[in-house]
């Protein structure tokens, strides 16, 4: 049995607490460095001020599986198994949540998951129209008509077909 | 205190309510407007987009335009992009009538013509020389490799000239509007520039190399040509400058043949100087501009080549029924690998894919392609989604990217 020393509590922006194995939490660079800073202190609660509970749960789920798979497939096959899991993992997340998740992961500095989520978002917007991408990210077009005409002239290659979504 | 809720307090309450309402409205607008999306996140997502999508993503907003239109971003994107083979084929059944301002018959509405683009950019109209009418128009295409298959890609680009050399996503192309002239262009962005005329020689008596300096990042075009006395001369043009500079050529007699395209690696350009049985290679340092020769570990035969692999220079040579790969380091060749299974005697190595590491071969007998995968140690014949086609010139290693010979320009807010 793991002792409580191997656990850490992550607190979401709403104040919800998650008890996590150190082996899992140490994949979040920010948690790691916070714990290193307060080494020796008995208090093992890390506040993730800006991260909502639903994202904390997703991140923990990902790294829990990551750690388990790595242990189980030490002799090889880890990467394929992880890919399989990542596919399932992404299927349960809706496209809007991906945006929140990528910001949370960026803040927590968790490279493996960051890569997965960035790739998923890139896949999602890959063949979408400019209008769709703006709406998806909530971006307002700040080009003036003249500027837009000018860069369209400079990058004429860009015109070919897109799927509208 | 609590009891005395007077008129004054009602006023206070109201203003608190108003403020709360105002705040709510403000929040709503904030949410509707640009939510704070970290630039790191955006650039990491954009780095994972294929080129076609990046071209669209430019138009999303100014910050995105500037993320993409940035030399560091373009360079990082280039580094994560896989190699392709670029080649040209004749546009079928087409007679070119007149290269006037009228619309030309085109297979794609968005086909870009190199020559027409130059003609349009001329301040004064020039009369089209009839000689070019007899030439076939060439379309530019590329082959991508992955999972034992190859896919054909279109640049929707046509020209009359042949690709002479490639470097980092840029190509060096004959400029058919000017005899002996050259064009440098990026076939993806379609940005192009005409180079000033160098020394004129017939194609079979010259060779072009195109490389980027590791230190100054400047692009250089190296032109070798054999004069009437048999000497091989060399002139170099730095992109951005307007004149060719003569440099000391290789020693007399080193080159028997100028037909092999040079390979760029280890800060230099390297030629196999004979059609068959070369015992050495001839190299020029991109920065030093000095020629030197390096002995090969064994004679280079017709189906052997040098290729660039992960930045190193490798000599890929047939040895009995296997193919050996030698690696050059400090003028010494070391045998690095031996392909023992599945090698065929007429497989000619073309390139090593920069991301997957596979080496692509072309079989001389039937023009089919093979890939050797180092992880599973298997040589596989590549399935093609297209037929073998009449091709002009050579298959050259290339990478599709947004690179340019000029620094990227940001747009101000």
TrEMBL record, chain A:
Family matches, as InterPro entries: SKP1 (IPR016897), SKP1-like (IPR001232), SKP1-like_dim_sf (IPR036296), SKP1/BTB/POZ_sf (IPR011333), Skp1_comp_dimer (IPR016072), Skp1_comp_POZ (IPR016073)
Residues annotated as domain SKP1 component dimerisation: 113-158
Stretches assigned to the SKP1 component POZ domain: 7-67
Coiled-coil stretches noted in the UniProt entry, renumbered to this chain: none
GO biological processes: jasmonic acid mediated signaling pathway; protein ubiquitination; ubiquitin-dependent protein catabolic process
Keyword list, A-Z: Ubl conjugation pathway
Pathway the protein takes part in: Protein modification; protein ubiquitination
Domain of life: Eukaryota
Gene3D superfamilies: Potassium Channel Kv1.1, Chain A
Oligomer and partners: Part of a SCF (SKP1-cullin-F-box) protein ligase complex.
PANTHER family: SKP1
Family: Belongs to the SKP1 family.
Known function: Involved in ubiquitination and subsequent proteasomal degradation of target proteins. Together with CUL1, RBX1 and a F-box protein, it forms a SCF E3 ubiquitin ligase complex. The functional specificity of this complex depends on the type of F-box protein. In the SCF complex, it serves as an adapter that links the F-box protein to CUL1.
Protein name: SKP1-like protein
Organism: Erythroxylum novogranatense
Taxonomic path: Eukaryota, Viridiplantae, Streptophyta, Embryophyta, Tracheophyta
From TrEMBL, chain B:
Domain F-box: 40-73
F-box associated beta-propeller type domain segment(s): 163-384
Signal peptide start and end residues: none
InterPro entries from the UniProt entry: F-box-assoc_dom_typ3 (IPR013187), F-box-assoc_interact_dom (IPR017451), F-box-like_dom_sf (IPR036047), F-box_dom (IPR001810), SCF_F-box_component (IPR050796)
One Pfam match: F-box
Stated name of the protein: F-box domain-containing protein
């Amino acid at each position: 049995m793991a002792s409580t020393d191997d656990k850490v509590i992550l607190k979401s922006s709403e104040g919800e607490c998650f008890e996590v194995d150190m082996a899992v939490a140490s994949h979040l660079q920010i948690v790691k460095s916070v714990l290193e800073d307060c080494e020796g202190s008995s208090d093992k609660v890390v506040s993730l001020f800006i991260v909502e509970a639903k994202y904390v749960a997703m991140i923990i789920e990902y790294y829990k599986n990551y750690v388990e798979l790595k242990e189980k497939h030490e002799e090889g096959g880890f990467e394929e198994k992880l890919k399989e899991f990542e596919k399932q993992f992404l299927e349960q997340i809706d496209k809007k949540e991906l945006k929140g998740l990528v910001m949370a992961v960026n803040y927590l500095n968790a490279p493996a998951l960051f890569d997965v989520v960035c790739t998923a978002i890139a896949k999602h917007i890959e063949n979408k129209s400019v209008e769709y991408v703006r709406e998806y990210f909530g971006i307002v077009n700040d080009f003036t008509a003249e500027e837009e005409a000018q860069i369209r002239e400079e990058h004429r290659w860009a015109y070919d077909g897109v799927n509208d979504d | 205190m609590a009891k005395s809720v007077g008129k004054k307090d009602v006023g206070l309450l109201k203003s608190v309510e108003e403020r709360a309402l105002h705040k709510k409205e403000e929040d709503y607008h904030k949410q509707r407007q640009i939510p704070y999306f970290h630039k790191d996140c955006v650039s990491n997502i954009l780095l994972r987009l294929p080129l076609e999508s990046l071209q669209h993503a430019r138009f999303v907003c100014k910050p995105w335009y500037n993320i993409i239109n940035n030399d560091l971003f373009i360079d990082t994107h280039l580094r994560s992009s896989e190699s392709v083979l670029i080649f040209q084929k004749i546009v079928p059944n087409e007679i070119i009538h007149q290269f006037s301002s009228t619309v030309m018959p085109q297979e794609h509405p968005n086909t870009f013509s190199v020559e027409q683009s130059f003609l349009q950019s001329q301040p004064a109209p020039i009369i089209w020389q009839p000689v070019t009418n007899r030439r076939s128009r060439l379309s530019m295409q590329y082959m991508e490799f992955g999972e034992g298959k190859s896919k054909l890609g279109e640049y929707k680009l046509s020209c009359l000239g042949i690709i002479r050399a490639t470097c980092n996503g840029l190509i060096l192309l004959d400029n058919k509007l000017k005899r002996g002239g050259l064009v440098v262009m990026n076939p993806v962005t379609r940005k192009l520039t005409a180079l000033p005329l160098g020394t004129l020689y017939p194609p079979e008596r010259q060779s072009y190399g195109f490389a980027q300096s590791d230190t100054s990042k400047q692009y250089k075009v190296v032109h070798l040509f054999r004069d009437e006395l048999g000497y091989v001369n060399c002139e170099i043009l730095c992109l951005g400058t307007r004149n060719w500079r003569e440099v000391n050529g290789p020693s007399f007699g080193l080159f028997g043949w100028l037909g092999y395209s040079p390979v760029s690696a280890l800060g230099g350009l390297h030629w196999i100087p004979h059609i068959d049985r070369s015992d050495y290679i001839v190299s020029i340092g991109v920065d030093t501009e000095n020629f030197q020769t390096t002995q090969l570990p064994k004679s280079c035969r017709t189906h052997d080549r040098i290729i660039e692999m992960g930045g190193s220079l490798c000599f890929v040579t047939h040895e009995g029924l296997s193919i050996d790969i030698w690696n050059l380091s400090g003028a010494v060749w070391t045998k690095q690998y031996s392909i023992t299974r599945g090698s065929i005697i007429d497989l000619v190595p073309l390139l090593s894919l920069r991301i997957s590491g596979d080496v692509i071969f072309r079989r001389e007998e039937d023009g089919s392609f093979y890939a050797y995968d180092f992880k599973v140690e298997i040589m596989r014949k590549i399935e093609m989604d297209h037929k073998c086609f009449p091709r002009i010139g050579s298959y050259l290693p290339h990478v599709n990217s947004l690179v340019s010979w000029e620094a990227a320009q940001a747009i101000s807010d």
